[in-house]
Design goal:
The complex is a heterodimer of chains A (about 110) and B (about 280). Chain A is an alpha/beta fold and about 110 residues long. Chain A is about 35% helix and about 30% strand. In chain A, helix 2 links the parallel strand 3 and strand 4. Chain A is globular and about 30 Å long. Chain B has 3 domains: about 160 residues, P-loop containing nucleotide triphosphate hydrolases (Rossmann fold), CATH 3.40.50; about 70 residues, no CATH class; about 30 residues. Helices cover about 40% and strands about 25% of the residues of chain B. Chain B contains 10 helices and 10 strands. In chain B, strand 9 and strand 10 form a beta hairpin. The chains are: A alpha/beta (about 110), B alpha/beta (about 280). At the A-B interface, helix 1, helix 2 and helix 3 of A face helix 4 and helix 6 of B.
């Protein structure tokens, strides 16, 4: 998995490429939590357009990002969700818990 | 934690190559032959149901796929690694991509359900404790035990223990999931929920699932292909439809639930008597 971050003011977009699994999810978790806690970002968008597989540890890492956002009254959005990851979110009954947008541009 | 040194990740394992390949497998206990030259290929992302009557060798076959016991002869390849002669390190790598739900649940009585489910995650990953706790709750919720995380196995019914065992088996979203009689002893509603979970896991996580069962309704619901065993030999391997349409007398007997004598079991009985007479 590769992570790239684009920061514009208090908004960060995390571009994820590759599988999010037991081995890679800790990096995604740390990245998202750091952006909220250390970089004081108001809004984090996780772009999953290049993610075809995510496991439960990846979902749990995203939940931790969402938890942190809610704790700090900030915004956490998932975009570009492909069928596989969407299916895992459905299975874990978390699809409606996240704010989800089709594209970055759709996030106002 | 280092990544398993197995060839190819789940996403890239070629679907036309068997992820599990059993070759000429023979298991004998003394004079008794339990598996007699079994050959079976299981492909990535499919659900293979192994069926057969009591003593047909199905659980023995599953245990060899799990790498628990060594066969008398033959080979079991998991992702091209022969686990019948693999090093301890190779077997450990393979076990990390396998989830196993035993017939007897096999939970640790001194641990809560949450700790039982979290155990493989704590043992085999470097995930943060907060991530592990979230995953554990997700898994227990998936088997309908979301409110039981602080209970101990002794406080649970048999069906709940079985579901907890399933939750632990899926804790790491294994690439290969092995079930020994997942519905045995469960009431029909909970058994149907386990079937539904198996279907969802396969679809969401692209798991390869091997199930040993003799519950016909469950088998036909969850299987992509089925393997019928009898007396340690494979009678047939095929899609659910091929098995359903089979005219093989022993498969028909099994599917139509015909008692042994009515299906010509007298021949077997006579053979047994003759054998006894010959050896005396």
């Amino acid at each position: 998995m590769d992570l790239n971050i684009k920061r514009i003011g208090t908004r960060s977009v995390v571009y994820v490429e590759g599988d999010i699994d037991l081995y890679s999810s800790p990096e995604l978790r740390e990245t998202v939590l750091d952006l909220f806690r250390k970089r004081q970002q108001e809004q984090i968008i996780v772009n999953l357009a290049e993610v075809f597989y995510i496991d439960s540890s990846g979902i749990a890492s995203l939940v931790e990002g969402l938890q942190e956002a809610r704790k700090q009254n900030r915004r956490f959005v998932l975009v570009g969700l492909r069928e596989g990851p969407r299916h895992v979110l459905e299975l874990t009954r978390l699809l409606n818990v996240f704010e989800i947008a089709e594209t970055e541009e759709a996030v106002t | 934690m280092s990544e398993p040194k197995l060839p190819s990740s789940r996403a890239h394992w070629a679907s036309d190559a068997p992820i599990i390949s059993v070759r000429d497998l023979v298991v004998r206990y003394g004079a008794k032959t339990v598996l007699d030259g079994v050959n079976l290929d299981i492909f990535s992302g499919e659900t293979m149901v192994i069926m057969g009557g009591s003593g047909s060798g199905k659980s023995t076959l599953l245990r060899r796929i799990m790498g628990i016991d060594r066969p008398t002869s033959g080979h079991v390849f998991i992702k091209n690694v022969d686990i019948t002669c693999a090093t301890e390190e190779e077997v450990n790598d393979i076990r990390r991509i396998m989830g196993i739900s035993f017939q007897s649940a096999a939970l640790f009585n001194s641990m809560t359900l949450a700790d039982n489910v979290a155990l493989p995650l704590r043992e085999h990953t470097n995930l943060a404790e907060s991530t592990i706790r979230l995953m554990t709750r997700m898994k227990l919720s998936q088997v309908g035990l979301g409110d039981a995380e602080n209970l101990y196995p002794a406080q649970l019914s048999g069906g709940m223990r079985k579901r907890a065992s399933v939750a632990r088996a899926i804790a790491m979203d294994p690439e290969i999931l092995l079930f020994d009689e997942p519905s045995a002893g469960l009431d029909p509603i909970i058994a149907a929920e386990i079937d539904s979970l198996i279907l969802k896991l396969k679809s969401a996580f692209k798991m390869t699932i091997v199930v040993v069962t003799h519950e016909l309704a469950s088998a036909f619901l969850i299987a992509d292909r089925m393997c019928m065993l009898r007396h340690g030999k494979i009678l047939a391997v095929g899609t659910t439809e091929e098995i359903r349409q089979s005219t093989h007398p022993r498969i028909r007997q099994f599917l139509d639930r015909v008692p042994d004598q009515a299906a010509g079991g007298q021949d077997d009985y006579l053979q047994t008597l003759i054998k006894i007479q010959d050896s005396s």
